[in-house]
């Protein structure tokens, strides 16, 4: 590749954005499941909203951790695609499907015993406990379809062909809304099931999405050169996937566990605080999709460049993605500040939940700023198959400083120490929940700085002469 092309910043930015926007739309469609659940269950009852918030936090912890392992396919396939080893792309996809089926067994165990998780929430009412239990049992059936579908997502993303998967995600939102309406509120002669109904709706739609994805792989000629086949699982391929996927999944799990345990701890402040926290978490997830989409696209383009031996291009893609995310963060924070009252009221009819959400949302701009950059840099590192050290850095920043500090200052021995700061940042917000979100923001900021340091270190090491030096760090 000529040096002129390497410095064609506009062209490379366009390539990132062309791949990022379908990922973003598809991700927003996926997160729309949570938005629909929160809004529709929120209009059912406060008890159902608390049960769903707790159930979602547990399910997402299990699913995201396992999904992160499967996402090892993205840099592996992208590097094979960049090197034009097309049949290897198909072989690796088949190995990813076997990995997804294996991980389903592990995830089932995590969902089958909710008491392990709920003991962190203090004394829950029997009604909430029962609804959380049945919600998770309904989602056990969704897990295999959802994980196998992620392999199709990885294939499309790694080969710069994400639009078809985006369309499947978009259509799935309409089906999710329909099944939610029927099962949550008890339409068409069925009983009203509240939070449990939202879990059953997710299960039905997950299998419809998998069926559509498998049909796509057979019908779209784009995938024919890859010779897609399931084949037999091989230890060498599974070992390679796990060597990269386990620390990647660990990073996903560390991040999502921090926020899942936040939901479990906030439940101690009651139904209204728990509902407000769920609204805050849902909006944070919606905002997160912008840097995540840029990160996925930039990591895919970088990995393709690495596979093709174009190391300078990979570096330039990383720098451009940082600038793109900065612009996206500025726009997102502006909208959050302007629309905060409308956002809080859109989620619930309960005035107490809406008021606490309005107050808690004052912390979201600061949180999003830190979250966006630590997300992007972690994806850029994965393009280089660097995952282990980032996992350790994220564990310290998110679990020890973020979650541990949030518990200490919100519910532990240091409770009350942050009250004056919180009253300045978010006057009137519930102190326990606000302490958790404040420390989570600081943890994400520390994670971003540590990951940026390691990314700079990898860029100094990663050149053709020393390529093996930084593999799987």
Helix and strand layout, with pairings?
Elements: H1 3-6, H2 9-42, H3 46-70, H4 73-82, H5 86-112, H6 115-118, H7 126-140, H8 143-158, H9 163-185, H10 194-219, H11 235-266, H12 271-307, H13 311-347, H14 351-360, H15 364-383, H16 388-410, H17 419-425, H18 431-461
Helix pairs in contact: 2-3, 2-9, 2-12, 2-13, 3-5, 3-7, 3-8, 3-10, 3-11, 3-12, 4-5, 4-8, 4-12, 5-7, 5-8, 7-10, 8-10, 9-10, 11-16, 11-18, 12-13, 12-14, 12-15, 13-14, 13-15, 15-18, 16-18
Estimated structural class: mainly alpha
Enumerate the spans where pLDDT stays under 50 for 5 or more consecutive residues.
Answer: 1-6, 467-471
Question: What is the global morphology?
Answer: globular
Portion in strands = under 5%
Multimer state: single chain
The share of residues in helices is: over 70%
Q: What order do the helices and strands follow?
A: HHHHHHHHHHHHHHHHHH
Major sheet, described briefly? none
What is the rounded distance between the termini?
Answer: 28 Å
Radius of gyration: 22 Å
Notes on the structure:
With 473 residues, the chain is mostly helical. The chain contains 18 helices and no strands. The longest helix is centred in the middle third of the chain and has 37 residues.
């Amino acid at each position: 590749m000529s040096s002129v092309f390497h410095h064609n910043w506009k062209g490379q930015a366009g390539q990132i954005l062309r791949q990022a926007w379908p990922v973003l739309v598809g991700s927003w469609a996926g997160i729309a499941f949570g938005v629909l659940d929160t809004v529709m269950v929120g209009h059912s009852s406060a008890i159902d909203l608390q049960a769903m918030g707790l159930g979602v936090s547990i399910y997402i912890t299990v699913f995201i951790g396992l999904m992160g392992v499967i996402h090892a396919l993205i840099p592996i396939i992208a590097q094979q695609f960049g090197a034009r080893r097309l049949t290897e792309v198909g072989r690796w996809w088949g190995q990813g499907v076997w990995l997804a089926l294996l991980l389903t067994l592990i995830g089932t165990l995590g969902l089958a015993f909710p008491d392990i998780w709920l003991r962190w929430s203090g004394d829950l009412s029997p009604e909430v406990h029962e609804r959380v239990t049945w919600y998770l049992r309904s989602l056990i059936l969704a897990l295999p379809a959802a994980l196998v579908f992620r392999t199709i997502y990885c294939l499309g993303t790694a080969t710069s062909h994400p639009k078809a998967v985006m369309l499947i995600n978009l259509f799935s939102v309409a089906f999710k809304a329909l099944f939610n309406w029927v099962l949550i509120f008890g339409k068409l002669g069925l009983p009203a099931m509240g939070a449990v109904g939202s879990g059953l709706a997710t299960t039905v739609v997950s299998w419809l999405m998998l069926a559509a994805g498998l049909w796509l792989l057979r019908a779209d000629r784009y995938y024919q050169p890859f010779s897609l086949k399931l084949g037999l699982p091989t230890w060498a391929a599974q070992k390679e996937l796990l060597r990269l996927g386990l620390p990647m999944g660990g990073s996903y799990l560390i991040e999502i566990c921090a926020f899942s345990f936040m939901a479990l701890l906030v439940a101690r402040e009651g139904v209204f605080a728990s509902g407000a926290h769920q609204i805050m978490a849902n909006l944070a997830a919606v905002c997160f999709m912008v840097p995540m989409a840029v990160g996925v696209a930039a990591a895919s383009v970088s990995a393709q460049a690495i596979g093709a031996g174009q190391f300078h291009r990979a570096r330039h893609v990383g720098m451009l993605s940082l600038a793109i995310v900065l612009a996206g963060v500025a726009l997102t924070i502006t909208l959050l500040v302007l629309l905060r009252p409308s956002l809080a009221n859109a989620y619930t009819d309960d005035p107490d939940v809406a008021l606490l959400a309005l107050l808690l949302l004052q912390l979201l701009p600061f949180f999003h700023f830190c979250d966006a950059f630590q997300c992007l840099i972690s994806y850029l590192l994965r393009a280089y198959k660097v995952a282990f050290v980032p996992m350790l850095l994220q564990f310290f920043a998110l679990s020890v400083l973020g979650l541990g500090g949030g518990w200490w200052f919100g519910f532990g021995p240091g409770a009350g120490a942050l009250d004056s700061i919180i009253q300045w940042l978010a006057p009137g917000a519930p102190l326990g929940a606000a302490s958790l979100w404040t420390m989570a923001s600081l943890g994400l900021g520390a994670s971003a700085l540590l990951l940026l340091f390691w990314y700079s270190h990898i860029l100094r090491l990663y050149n053709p002469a020393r390529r093996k030096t930084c593999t799987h760090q």
